[in-house]
Input
Amino acid sequence: MRILITGATGQIGRWLLHTLAPNPGLELVLALRRPQPQLDSLRAWLAARHMQPAATLRALPFDLDHPDRAARLVKEAQPDMLVHLAARFAWGLSPQQAWRANGLTSLALLRALNHQAPQARFLHVSGFMLQHRAHLARLGLDETGQTKDWPAVYCRAGGYEASKLQAHVEMRALAAALAHPLLVLHPATVAGHSVEGELPDHAALYQLCRQLLKGRLGALPGTPAHRLPLVAVDHVARFIAALVQDPQQRGGDYLLMDPASPPVPVLAQQLAQALGRPAPRRHLPIPLLRLLLKGLPGLARWSGSHPESLDFLVRDVAFDTAPAERLAAGWGLAHPPLEQVLAATARHVRERELRR
Ligand SMILES: NC(=O)c1ccc[n+]([C@@H]2O[C@H](COP(=O)([O-])OP(=O)(O)OC[C@H]3O[C@@H](n4cnc5c(N)ncnc54)[C@H](OP(=O)(O)O)[C@@H]3O)[C@@H](O)[C@H]2O)c1
Output
């Protein structure tokens, strides 16, 4: 089975590679911005974890900012499945930048796959906020994510989140028009690996640990009832790897979220304990915090918080994780204990910050 993977160097992508690499029946074609150096560095990353891939690995050039190059990539790779993980995942993106990379390129990849390999499977990654009806309504979207005014959504949610929402809606419509089944994952905020704790510096949880470590978190965002829904990166990687290796799975939406994700005060307490720092007890309402972060860019820089990241804190939402949990249970997968994940994540951040 030949799998074309975009975003293999990312937080989820590298652990997916780690999970798939032992399978000698797989050919993994990695779509990378700088194919050779990035493939070499991924091989070194695997080797540092005592992993000599049994799967065949090769790399092809890919750039999310050029949707017009998607067809050539798919033609060269001729995959049986395309796992599209790459995204411009950053705060403060312009609507044009975000939509080109996260929307137009996803659509171009699906069109190309349907044209060149109509039987091949496509896995797309959206986000958990699509199941948060009240949030969608606040942004001006109906329950299916439709709106007549996308510019207003970009203005309210920021480029990253708005482009992921719009991409989801338009990918669904295109898949229906092409009659091409679509596998869609909706991960919660992705935490570090349950043993290694590794997660990138730009991840929301990294920034929260960093603020706690540096004593820069004077108050907790939201109310004691707010939660930051989380899922360990190794669970996400194992889930995608199982989907890849189960050709019966051709379509469906799966929300990946650890149901044990605690309220913010408990999360902060657990991370602070692992970091050897005190956790704040006071709370700041989210609208006020958003105003402060928008009005005082220096505060955002100093604290590492961005107003766009506050949208991922939720309260009183019942998320439906049952379809994903059923599939995972069928494959014998379970979430690693979240306390262990948080302790490993905090350890990783502390060690990395000490080395800076
Ligand atoms: N992590 C989360 O909390 C979370 C939650 C929900 C959904 N998701 C979604 O899950 C997917 C994977 O997320 P992640 O956390 O693994 O992301 P990540 O760590 O930010 O990695 C992003 C990946 O995209 C690639 N990329 C960025 N710009 C590119 C460009 N112009 N051309 C080609 N490749 C480019 C990066 O390659 P380089 O190494 O070359 O930069 C990297 O491999 C994304 O679609 C994201 O929206 C993530």
Observations:
- Residues 7, 9-13, 33, 62-65, 85-89, 101, 125, 127, 164, 187, 189-190, 200 surround NAP (CB under 6 Å).
- The CA atoms of residues 20 and 241 lie 6 Å apart.
- Residues 95-116 form the longest helix (22 residues).
- The radius of gyration is 20 Å.
